[in-house]
Amino acid sequence: MNLIPDSIELKPSTNRTIISTFIGLELSGAIGMVIILFTAIFSHKVKRLATWYTFCASWTISCLSYSLLFFTGEIHLPEPRKSICVAQAALIYSVPTLTASSTLTLLVHSWYNVHFGLSKPPLESNSRVIMAMLLAPFLLWILLLIGFLSLGIKTPSLVHNFGLYCTFMQVLPAKISSLFVIITTFSTIPIQGAYMHIFAYTLHWQGVCITQASFTSQYLLDYRPAETLIVATLAARCPCKLSRW
Q1: What pLDDT, on the 0 to 100 scale, is given for residue 12?
Q2: What DSSP assignment string belongs to the chain?
Q3: How confident is the model over 209-240, as pLDDT tens digits?
Q4: What is the Rg, in whole angstroms, of the alpha carbon atoms belonging to the chain?
Q5: What backbone phi and psi angles, to 5 degrees, belong to 166?
Q6: Are strands 159-161 and 166-168 parallel, antiparallel or unpaired?
Q7: In the chain, domain spans
Q8: Superfamily (CATH) of domain 16-187
Q9: What is the dihedral of CA 131, 144, 27, 156, to 10 degrees?
C-alpha cells in the first residue's frame, strides 16, 4: 500500500545552512532550559514549584529529541540507520504530549496555590497529589513512546528521513499527538482566565485602574510566592475575607 501520493516527492534536505540553523535553534533551546533549570536547583534564593522543574525538563527533552540525528552523526546522511530513525520518529510524535501535559500541571499547580493561598494548605503539603502531577506527564509520554516505537519496529517502511529529522509517513501518529495537544491546550484557557480574574481582583482592591491591564502567558507561568504575600497583605487591610475568589 502506497502511503504517499505519487505527486508528492519527499527528499531529505541537503541544505547545510538550513540543517545548521535548525540544529542550532534546538540545541540553544535545550542548553538555555538546562541553564535555567540548574540555576534554580543550585540557588538557595530561587523558589520554584515542583511542576516548574518538570516543565523545564519536558522542553529540554523535546529539543534533544529533534536533535537525535545530530548526536548520532547521521544528520547529513540520506539514509540514517533505521533504528535511529524509528527512535527519533517515535520521540518526535510522543514528546508533544509531554510538553503539553507538563504545562497543564504547572498551570493547575500555580492556580491552586494562588486561588486557595489563604484558605487551604499549599498543594506541596499533599505528597501524593504532587507525585501524581510530576509523574503523570512522563507516564503518558512513555506509553505513547512505546506505542510509536512498536509501530515503527513492526512497519519500518513507515519511517522517512525528512532531512532535519525522521517522521512517520502515516497520519495516525500525527492525529493522536495533535488531538491530545489540542485538548490539553484548550484545557489551559479557563485556568489562565482564572488567573486574570485573580490578579485583576487583587489590583482592584489596591484601587488600581485595570481597564488597560494585560497579563501575558509568561507572567502567568512565572509564578512566585510573592503573589500570595501580596494578597495576604491586602487581606489584612481589607475587611472582606479572601476565602475564595
Answers
A1: 53
A2: ---S-TT--------HHHHHHHHHHHHHHHHHHHHHHHHHHH-SS----HHHHHHHHHHHHHHHHTTHHHHTT-TT-SS--HHHHHHHHHHHHHHHHHHHHHHHHHHHHHHHHHHTTTTS--GGG-HHHHHHHHHHHHHHHHHHHHHHHHHHHH-GGGEEE-SSSEEESSHHHHHHHHHHHHHHHHHHHHHHHHHHHHHHHHHHHTT---TT----HHHHHS--THHHHHHHHHHHHSSS--S--
A3: 434 334 444 444 444 444 444 444 444 444 44
A4: 22
A5: -95, 145
A6: antiparallel
A7: 16-187
A8: Rhodopsin 7-helix transmembrane proteins (1.20.1070.10)
A9: 160
**Out of 14-18, 22-26, 31-35, 188-192, least confident range:** 188-192
What is the C-alpha to C-alpha distance for residues 50 and 134, in angstroms, rounded to an integer? 8
